[in-house]
Amino acid sequence: MYYIYILANKKDGTLYIGVTNNLIRRTGKHKQNLAGRFTKKRHVHKLVYFESTSDIREAIYREKCMKRWRRQWKVELIEKDNPCWEDLYYDII
Known about the structure:
With about 90 residues, this protein is α+β, with helices and mostly antiparallel strands. The chain has one domain: GIY-YIG endonuclease (3-Layer(aba) Sandwich), CATH 3.40.1440.10. It contains 5 helices and 3 strands, in the order ββααβααα. The protein has a 3-stranded antiparallel sheet, sandwiched between helices. A hairpin with a 6-residue loop joins strand 1 (about 1-10) and strand 2. The longest helix has 13 residues, at about 55-70. About 25% of the residues are buried.
């Protein structure tokens, strides 16, 4: 499986969109500041949204599309299933 995910530093805060084949490991690296300068510098560690697909090409395409979306569309996507912007990481481990 491949995962498209959104991290945030707080409700209505900075957003980061990524793709991975191991959501637990990748999110854990973000939480430990081992996964890139953008998330480390801005303290973007909360997993607030994710979806999965079995096709890597589909996952990459979806990630690229979501990165081009208006911010409001991303917020609406998050709040549809996670209105309080809870950290979903602890639900998946």
